[in-house]
Design goal:
alpha/beta, five-stranded antiparallel sheet, Hypothetical Protein Yjia, Chain: A,domain 2, single chain, globular, Rossmann fold, seven-stranded parallel sheet
């Protein structure tokens, strides 16, 4: 049976940096063919134009599809599902689908839609990424310009115009598998640490909280979470169950920041390195060890191969946060039988301690 195509949902308020994050992802896709579904509102189509005009080889104009009929949560049946089916029915299906919700669209109804029979066997939610404006949230706001968010909300009569932004924000947090604190270059180190700790405490167990500037996140951190979020709706409780009325839209999202960013933060905020060690004897114990090391050092991803004593097959290991998956994939070749693991995390990882622990 063909593997399901992974889809990542990117949500967050107007101006948090969703479009910038997606554009950066496309520019660093590493050959992946990524298709986009963008929930525009009205007829501005700014996000779509920004992304269609990105000039990236792996993202052609036909790979960017826009939904302009109002909030994606309210138009799942007539708008979203048919659009997704069109993508899946292409002769050359995408490797990954990224869905950018409009500024106040709740992610829960969208994720739930992946259980619809028409698409449930063909696509899965790899993960929900919630982008927040770090500066605004630190200052007690939920968006750079809250009045612009409310103005957007009033444009769609289907939307809830009364619910406080704080509750809509909580819904986006409750559904997230990864929270991206964007514009982190505008925060002091103390503010960054405090906001990361606060959002991590408020999030579900195992949700990763990372900081970014101009949406610059390594693609291997953003994609490939393998969550299967649609099968885990119970944990992603929402405060609002009136999917008719909820939330909504942004057009000139993330390019609208009226300040200069320090571009040096980008990928320098992340690092990766390789740990090489001899054969392992017990895969189950080694998986436990990996989980402990990940928790102790706040590692985002760990992946690689292990040689298991007495086994001719190579053990593939992939870990996202504390979740470790492993399977035997192919016989070892003529090279040395050793274990090689790539460790990925935010800058400042204690390489020596991690290497020592994984080599134990």
């Amino acid at each position: 049976m063909q593997a399901k195509i992974p889809a990542t949902v990117v949500t967050g308020f107007l101006g948090a940096g969703k479009t910038t994050l997606i554009r950066h992802m496309l520019e660093n896709a590493g050959g992946r063919r990524i298709a986009l579904i963008i929930n525009e509102f009205g007829d501005l189509g700014v996000d779509g134009d920004i992304l269609k005009g990105c000039g990236i080889e792996t993202c052609s104009e036909e790979d960017v599809m826009e939904l302009s009929n109002g909030c994606i949560c309210c138009t799942v049946a007539e708008d979203f599902i048919p659009t997704l089916q069109k993508l899946l029915d292409r002769e050359r299906a995408p490797d990954h689908i990224v869905i950018e919700t409009s500024g106040l669209a709740l992610p829960q109804p969208l994720v739930r839609a992946f259980n619809w029979p028409e698409i449930s066997t063909r696509v899965t939610v790899d993960g929900v990424v919630t982008v927040v404006d770090g500066k605004a949230v630190t200052e007690g706001r939920f968006a750079h310009d809250e009045s612009a968010v409310d103005a957007q909300r009033k444009l769609d009569e289907n939307l809830d115009h009364e619910t406080p932004l704080s509750e809509l924000f909580e819904d986006q947090m409750a559904c997230a598998d990864m929270i991206v604190i964007n514009k982190s270059d505008l925060l002091t180190e103390e503010e960054r640490v405090a906001l990361t700790a606060r959002l991590r405490a408020d999030a579900r167990k195992g949700v990763q909280v990372v900081t970014a500037t101009m949406g610059a996140l390594p693609v291997e951190v953003l994609l490939g979470q393998g969550i299967g979020a649609e099968a885990d709706m119970e944990a992603r409780h929402e405060l609002h169950h009136h999917h008719h009325d909820h939330d909504e839209e942004d057009h000139h999202d993330d390019e609208d920041d009226d300040h200069d960013h320090d571009h040096d933060h980008g990928h320098d905020a992340f690092e990766s390195f390789v740990v090489t060690r001899p054969e392992i004897s017990d895969p189950a114990n080694f998986a436990k060890l990996i989980t402990e090391v990940i928790r102790a050092h706040d590692i985002l991803r760990l992946k690689g191969f292990a040689a298991v004593a007495g086994k001719p097959m190579r053990l593939t290991i992939q870990a996202v946060g504390p979740r470790v998956d492993s399977y035997f994939d192919q016989p070892y070749g003529a090279g040395p039988r050793q274990t090689r693991l790539v460790v990925i995390g935010q800058a400042g990882l204690d390489r020596a301690a991690i290497t020592a622990a994984l080599s134990a």
